[in-house]
């Protein structure tokens, strides 16, 4: 038995043999084990012979059966060949019979077709004779239930009558035409009644009969008319139209053989009758009296019409439904779209002017003329080159004449104009129209409002030697900066998409660049003059508050103050102006203006300190003042300004240092790179400069 392992088999045999399992032990008997092995080998040989004989017998039997099976297969193959030959013969016979049947059928059809035509012609002649006699006796004409058969007959008779000469058959032709017309009217009436009853199958039957009549189009018209009965009862004619078309689209294919034509005719009727009438009523009411309402209505109606058109695009309306619907929309709105942009520009101009005028009226302000022409241009060039105020200063009482409310209103009006322009303009005219709207925005927002405010703000800046001057131009800068951001946002969000792929893009960008550069020049000029005024105010404070005895006190041992009153007031004033500048500007402009103010502030203090002579105690007080100025300069957060005041503070040390240490101080890190004349000018401010000892040490 499998699996067979010889070693295990011998081991089992040895263990079963008495005396064969304990090799080398007392009970081990090798002779007995040998005898057992010899006997077992003999048994295996006998078994092998028996099995071999059995195998040979089975092989002989298998060969015999294989021969019998092969013989049987050969017999079956012969039978199969015979059956195949019979099948071929049968197939050929069937083909022969089929050919004969087809030939016979063709012969029968050839005989039957003329016979049918003859029968049909005989019937038509019979019916024609009835019309000749003037009395219709056939059941097909008198029985109302056979209207379908009568319609088929009269339609054929009508075609035949068309070929007959009029002089001989005028009367019968007239009778046939009359009957043709009566049947046509009956069929249309039957179709109408079936439609009112909602019998779709009857409508389909009648429509199929009418298809060959001239009045088929009238049947379609009746269907379209009855479809619209009760369909437009709500205020929203566009929604009603969409619902009606959706309903008819599901039904029309079950009734007519050309559903797309019928549906297209229904849509055309809706557009040319219902929508056109509705649009006219809505627009003509405000066309001449209220431009704002007219434009809103035009935009709303056109948008709703195009949305309805988009919904109708889902239906099968023929090959070029996009062109078909576009023509319908154009037919409704063409008279309104031709002059749309003129109405838009006219409204935008009057509306913008009204917004500005209403604002100035609320301020009780009469706009002054900025002026143009040669003299004004000359003044402008002189002012740009010299930065001097030309003409009297105007007191604006703190009013900037800039209003975010006005700006938002102007931008909102322009935004709506851009949206209408995008929707209502022809694609070829869109960039040109958008540019005209942008030009209106530039005129009223930038020129009439911002530029006017800048001119007024410039005129309101006092001269640099004015006392207690109120400086409001930074408020103008702050508001103008905010307005510029809003203006730029609308340019990018609403104008750019309309002109991005047209030549008008470069023209708009250039126009925007020019207007911004023009305003930046005026802003820079105003800021510069404002800084001059700030320095002028500091000069007035120093002149009024700084005394000569501050730095040369009579009693050197009885000085109780840490810094002078002038220093305190100047620092307070400067801190307010720094905060105001930070609140009025953003980005790099803050650092640029603060650096300019800081440099001028340093120059002022530097020149101011050189107007006095200093005792030892006065020099200490000057150092304290400069330390306070330096502390104030830290608020600028500008490295250059702080460096300038650090150097000035180091220069002030020359006012108090002992004569023996002057050279050492002058060669220090902060003063080593300064011009020797500057150092000398500060040393000369000392009260003891004239002493031979000091002069000798400094030289």
From TrEMBL:
Q: Does the keyword Coiled coil apply?
A: yes
Q: Name one GO cellular component term.
A: exocyst
Q: Where is the signal peptide?
A: none
Among its keywords, does the record have Amino-acid biosynthesis? no
An example GO BP is: exocytosis
Residue ranges of domain Exocyst complex component Sec10 N-terminal in the record: 30-138
Q: Which residues form the Exocyst complex component Sec10-like alpha-helical bundle domain?
A: 149-698
Q: Which Pfam families match?
A: Sec10_HB (PF07393), Sec10_N (PF20667)
Superkingdom, taxonomy of origin: Eukaryota
- Keyword entries, A-Z: Coiled coil, Exocytosis, Transport
Q: Could you list the residue ranges forming a coiled coil in this record?
A: 41-79
What family is this? Answer: Belongs to the SEC10 family.
What is the designated name of this protein?
A: Exocyst complex component 5
